[in-house]
Structure formats: C-alpha cells, structure tokens
Amino acid sequence: MNQGLLKCTCAAVLVTLLAWGLYVGRPVLVPIAFAIIATYVVFGLANLLRRVPYLGAPLRDGLRHAIAATLMLFTVYLSVDLLLSDRDRLMAVAPKYEATLLVLLTKFAALLHIETEANWAAIRRDLLASVNVQAIMTATLSSVSSLLAAIIVVLLYATFFLIEHAKYRRKLVKFAGGSTRIVSIIDEINSKIGIYLAMKALLGAILGIVSWICMRLVGLEFAELWAVLIGLLNFIPYAGSWISVAVPTLLAALQFGQWNAALVLFMSLTLANFVVGHLLDPWLMGGSLNLSPAIILISLAVWSSIWGIAGAFLAVPITVGLVIAFSAFESTRRFAVLLTNDD
C-alpha cells in the first residue's frame, strides 16, 4: 500500500476520533477550557500590570496576580448581576416589542405597497408566529441558572489552576527529563495566549464603554447589559462585531418603533467597532499572532460546530497554541506555516 495514502488515512481517522471525543466530552471539557482561559487572562493582566510605568514594576508577582484576579471576578460579578437584575424587566417589555414589530412590518408593507394583497395577512401572521420576541427572551433567560452553575464551576477550576500553576510547571520539567525545550515551548504558548486574551479583555472593556455611551445617547433600554455582552462578543472574531452592531440596532427599532434612532445607533456602533477592530487592535497586538484570516474563519467554524458558542470564544487561543507547538518541531513546522499569514 502507498505509504502516503496510509498516513493520510490514519491522520483522517485520528482527527475524526479526536473531534468525536471533543464533541461527546464537551460538558466536562468546556468548563475546563474556560477555566484555563480565565487563568491565562489573570496571568496576562498581571504581565500588563508589570508594564505600567512607576507602579507595575515594584509590585510583587503575587500582588499583581491578586489584582488581576480581582478585576476578573469583579467583571464576572457585574455581568451576572446585570443579567439577574434585568431579567424581569426584559420579560416585561417583550409584549411591547412584539407590538412594535407588528407596526414596523405594517409600515414596511405600506412602503412596498403590498399591505392590500390578499396573502399579506397570512404572511404577517406566519412571520409573527415564527419570530416570537417573548418566546425568544423566555428561552434565553431560562438558562440563567445553568449559566450561573457553569460560572461557579469555571471559577473553581481556575482557582485551583492558579494555586497549583508553579507546581505543575515543576512537574512538567521532571516529566520532560530535565529538558528545557518543552518548558520553553509551553512558556511561549502561555505568554502569547495570555497577552492576547488580556489585550482582548482590555479592548472589549473599551468597546463596551464606548458602546454604552452610544446606546445611552439614543436612550436604548438595558444599555448596561448590552454593553457587557458587546465586550464579551469582542472575543469572537468577525462574527462578534456583526452581532454587537445588529442586535442593539434591531432592539432600538423595536423600542422606538421607527428607524431614525436605530440608524444613528447603527452608524455609531459600526464606527466604534471599526476603530477598535481595525485601529486599536492591530496597534496593540502588533500582528504578533500572525494568523491567516482564512484560518481564523475555518477554526471559528470548526470549533463552533464542536463546542457551540463556547468554541467560538476558544477558537483563536486554541489555534495560536497549535501554531506555536507546530513551529517548535522540524517535522510539523510546515503545518505551522500553513496556519500563519506568511507567504
């Protein structure tokens, strides 16, 4: 048998089994993956604090890590508190949004001169039945309890990872037989992913604050909650920006019943996402990840299909780790070149 065909077949079978294992084990693996990401964020923020002029360098490592962990816990607490406090209010405004949607549909039909058509009533009835605002909000908010349980599990895992980080590093050195090569590879992965996640968290906070100002200026309801969600969506490449613009714009249209405020919000949020995504992001990141845009989209699609929304958040960090690991060995370096943006 052709050796090349045999290797390709074995590789395909191995990848299929690995993907199947990741899919089946997602209830256990996803919280662990998010706990690892939270640990990376803490260490990344601690490294950023060390770079603060005059203040960061004198701080001890333990104090920097404590400050970074406190910031992350405060952000989680703020997000959960906003979700819980606005839950009843969201359910209360759902009927009003449905009525506004009906008015907008009627205006749209009048604009196209189809409101007098015989089948317009049936089309409108079927559309409203399939797009039930209250049902969508109920289904979304009903998972709050499971979300809180998942957050607690993730924080518990992350706490143990932070406490035993140094111990696992020493075990890794012993496992590698005293070789420093594997340890240096792990350190490089940790450094790049940690800085990436910390920068994305910082950019997400900036984008959330700017978006909150834009939404408050037009008077959008629940601006604080949407601002936190927009900051979190900044971790999802490409699709996160589209969602963070489209959803508040649609909600503005449903709230006000006309498109003037919605268009103003759409333009301001688009401008904010453009500045953060195309100016601040490249300036702060400096192209250090060097990932191909096509590879980012493919990894986003693959990990989203395996782990859902969680996979969308984890796609880029996982891909970065693979690139660094592949580039460290001569036999897999060509695969790393395929994933990067280099010629």
From TrEMBL:
Compartments where found: Membrane
TM helices/strands, residue ranges: 5-23, 29-50, 62-80, 135-163, 201-219, 225-254, 261-280, 300-326
Record organism: Paraburkholderia sejongensis
UniProt keyword terms in alphabetical order: Membrane, Transmembrane, Transmembrane helix
Domain of life: Bacteria
Family stated for the protein in its record: Belongs to the autoinducer-2 exporter (AI-2E) (TC 2.A.86) family.
UniProt protein name: AI-2E family transporter
Primary residence: membrane
Membrane-topology descriptor: Multi-pass membrane protein
Alphabetical list of InterPro entries matching this protein: AI-2E-like
